[in-house]
Design a protein that fits this description.
Blueprint: E1 2-3, E2 12-13, E3 34-48, E4 51-70, E5 72-81, H1 89-94, E6 113-121, E7 127-146, E8 151-169, E9 172-173, H2 174-181, E10 183-185, E11 192-194, H3 195-199, H4 218-224, E12 228-246, E13 262-278, H5 280-283, E14 287-288, E15 297-318, E16 321-335, E17 339-353, E18 356-367, H6 371-375, E19 379-384, H7 398-406, H8 410-414, E20 424-428, E21 437-448, E22 456-468, E23 471-472, H9 476-486, H10 489-492, E24 495-496, E25 510-512, E26 516-517, E27 520-535, E28 546-562, E29 570-571, E30 575-576, E31 593-603, E32 613-623, E33 626-628, E34 649-650, E35 653-664, E36 668-675, E37 710-717
Parallel strand pairs: 20-25, 30-33
Antiparallel strand pairs: 1-2, 3-4, 4-7, 5-6, 7-8, 8-12, 9-14, 10-11, 12-13, 13-15, 15-16, 16-17, 17-18, 18-21, 19-20, 21-22, 22-27, 23-26, 24-25, 27-28, 28-29, 28-31, 31-32, 32-35, 33-34, 35-36, 36-37
């Protein structure tokens, strides 16, 4: 039921799930205010011919304020006493008392208790706000110098720290909600009062009158709204020493090359430490609508590295081999958390003639799990964006599959409520038994620098990258969709429904999506780069300055995600949606082609010390269209429940930007520009296909310009 705005103000009518939904978008800050301060200091001192001491200090402070939609009572199970004096007679007649309290309606059983799902936005209190601050410190102390003509060294100690703090307001405390809904008539004043005030368990309680239009008071909000804070620190300590040089003096060089073998080798120690703690309210999960509890995290690991690399000129200045060079590198790492790892590289560079260079490489890389992935406590939080079994009609063929998948009756499936905000619970958290990710990267490219057109540089590079033992969650949406599609006991066993059959109404309903070594992520494609710089005198435009052009583009051939080692991979190239923009560490649409091109005119205009240089540039940004993943034929993506025609395609976008830069007295640099000159709107899609986080305001701000035309002015001064 909902309070009927057409009635006398304190009556219920039956809730219409299609229309009685809060529009949470307009209250959110679309762009957050941000203040950032950066300080850097560098010094060096020559102690001797072979020793230079140096110190680097960096500091950054960043503060930002966000606002999201009002909090309140997020759909959960609460109890309301039938004798609540804030209820009208009509409302009592519609509310059912629990069997344990005598059954019947609240009108016929005033001593009974209604227990059910209660949900209401705090529209009177406004949006929830939070202020986030990051402070970063970095100190480096080292010494470097030349050991001999062909050898040098560098040794340093580094300490880094990132501090995080956040204060948020506007959230209700869950226990306070329950107390404020349990209202009785005071025997002394005859006025509504919280039962907890009379029994002494919470004397600060103020009744929360959600049963009457205009019934919410500021005093009630002051009682319910509970600020919270959280603090965290990430520490990094590094000790590194490296030696580099040339082996020519030792006779180690190719007989067909003039230059000797260049090498570098060294050792490093690194320690990573994280500590994070929220106040009791947030850590215990008492903030209603905060997405779950914020338990403390504390952990660290050490790693010892030995590394070396070599560059070996094989052939120089010979026919069809102006230069042929081989490169190799190796690193041995010993982690206290995961054991030992090995990484290495093999690469070649061939310049048959002066204008052309061909390059190829193979690299094995390893990523060890970080502290959060290892040590975060497992916790129920907001994770998924869909429940294919929620809000179904009786004629929907999914009803039978959902009943079979989760052992429910048809009536129980039809009673599963859909979350209007498309937010569902997941059990997430770290895993101390993780193995490292390993990746294999293959690349082949060609660079063309024609001698007949100085200033032109063109390169084309093919890449193929595969990450195995990928560290991630499988993805709540992928898990539940695979369960319903395949009825696989593994996936279905990860879905825990609460007593209402829901995975969002209570912490007892969730999808297990903890961190583990999943399947793999593979991507391949071609990168295109081109640049050209010249004076306009070459074209007969004397004293007109010079121009520079740059172009960077990527053709995405493949973007495959394999959720588990034995599962069938699916390709997200050219797709977006709740799986292809979220699973496998992805966080945005994946257009098949994107590019950025810029033309800059470095004008000859000057005016004494007040204008020593002036540059004008235009930039073109392009993103190909993307299609909703729910329309893809792959069984892990195909989802008729999300196939809204308005969401089928996000059209291609072209943005044009203008920028002017000018320098005054050679030390002060100004920037003035307009991004998205033609005020092109971003493509939008419905909330069902707009997962919270990467999608905001029904679009994808990591790819598309969400604000339309954007004007900026900047200043940099050197002292």
């Amino acid at each position: 039921f909902v309070v009927d705005p057409a009635g006398p103000g304190n009556t219920f009518r039956v809730r219409n799930g299609a229309t009685d939904v809060y529009n949470f978008g307009p209250t959110n800050y679309y762009q957050r205010p941000d203040d950032r301060y950066v300080l850097g200091a560098f010094s060096h001192y020559q102690l001797a011919d072979w020793a230079e001491a140096y110190v680097d200090v960096m500091y950054m402070d960043d503060r930002s304020t966000y606002q999201i939609a009002p909090g309140g009572i997020f759909a959960g199970t609460f109890s309301i006493n039938c004798a609540n004096p804030l209820l009208s007679a009509q409302q009592r007649g519609l509310m059912t008392a629990t069997a344990a309290s005598g059954g019947g309606t609240c009108a016929s059983n005033p001593a009974g208790t209604f227990t059910g799902i209660v949900s209401r936005r705090n529209v009177e209190g406004g949006g929830r706000q939070g202020t986030t601050e990051h402070q970063q410190y970095r100190y480096v102390v080292g010494m470097r110098g030349d050991i001999s003509e062909n050898w040098n060294y560098d040794a340093y100690l580094q300490y880094g720290r990132v501090s995080f703090s956040q204060v948020q307001t506007g959230f209700f405390r869950t226990t306070a909600i329950q107390n404020a809904l349990n209202v009785v008539t005071s025997p002394t004043t005859g006025q509504p009062v919280c039962a907890s005030v009379l029994n002494g368990s919470d004397t600060a309680c103020v009744p929360y009158n959600i049963f009457q239009l205009g019934g919410v008071t500021r005093e009630a909000l002051d009682y319910l709204e509970t600020p919270s804070s959280q603090l965290g620190n990430l520490y990094e300590r590094i000790a590194n020493v490296s030696i580099g040089g040339n082996l020519t003096d030792y006779g180690l060089k190719s007989p067909w090359a003039e230059d000797g073998v260049g090498v570098s080798f060294g050792a490093e120690y690194r320690r990573e430490t994280l500590d994070f703690a929220a106040d009791f309210v947030a850590a215990s999960g008492a903030l209603n609508g905060a997405g779950g509890a914020s338990p403390p995290v504390n952990g660290s690991y050490d790693v010892y590295d030995l590394f070396g690399e070599a560059r070996i000129p094989l052939i120089q200045d010979m026919p069809f081999a102006r230069s042929l060079t081989f490169e190799t590198a190796y690193r041995f790492s010993d982690y206290s958390s995961i054991g030992t790892t090995h990484t290495y590289k093999l690469a070649g560079d061939w310049e048959p003639v002066e204008d052309v260079r061909v390059r190829a490489s193979y690299q094995r890389a390893v990523r060890a799990p970080h502290v959060l992935e290892l040590f975060s406590p497992q916790n129920v939080v907001l994770d998924g964006t869909q429940d294919p079994c929620a809000g179904l009609a009786a004629t929907d063929p999914l009803v039978a599959r959902c009943a079979q998948a989760f052992g429910l009756t048809t009536a129980q499936v039809l009673a599963i409520e859909e979350n209007p905000a498309n937010q569902y619970n997941g059990l997430t958290g770290g895993n101390p038994n993780l193995d490292p990710e390993t990746s294999d990267t293959y690349s082949v490219g060609i660079v063309y620098q024609p001698s007949f057109l100085p200033g032109l540089n063109v390169s084309v590079d093919w890449f193929d990258i595969k990450v195995k033992d990928y560290i991630s969650g499988i993805g709540a949406d992928l898990i539940i969709n695979n369960c319903v599609e395949t009825l696989d006991p593994f996936y279905c066993g990860l879905v825990n429904r609460d007593a209402q059959g829901s995975i969002f109404l209570s912490p007892q309903g969730y999808v297990v999506d903890t961190t583990l070594n999943t399947g793999s992520l593979r991507t391949s494609g071609v990168d295109f780069n081109a640049g050209y710089r010249t004076d306009l005198d070459r074209f007969g435009l004397n004293d007109m300055g010079g121009i520079s052009l740059s172009f960077v583009g990527t053709w995405l051939d493949k973007l495959e995600i394999q959720s588990l080692p034995d599962s069938d991979p699916f390709d997200c190239t050219g797709l977006y949606g709740t799986i292809c923009s979220v699973s496998g560490g992805l966080s945005s649409p994946n257009p098949e082609w994107r590019h950025k091109a810029r033309l800059t005119w470095n004008t000859p205009f000057t005016y004494g010390d007040w204008l020593t240089s002036l540059g004008l540039s235009v930039q073109w940004r392009h993103f190909n269209k993307v299609t909703l993943d729910a329309y893809d034929e792959h069984p892990q993506l195909f989802n008729p429940g999300l196939q809204y025609e308005t969401d089928r395609v996000l059209g291609a976008r072209d943005y044009f930007d203008l920028t002017a830069t000018w320098t005054m007295k050679d030390t002060v640099n100004f920037r003035l520009g307009v991004n998205n000159v033609f005020d092109k709107d971003p493509p939008v899609n419905g909330s069902s296909n707009c997962p919270t986080g990467p999608c905001n305001g029904n679009t994808w701000p990591q790819v598309y310009d969400a604000f339309g035309r954007y004007i900026f002015l900047g200043l940099t001064a050197d002292f």
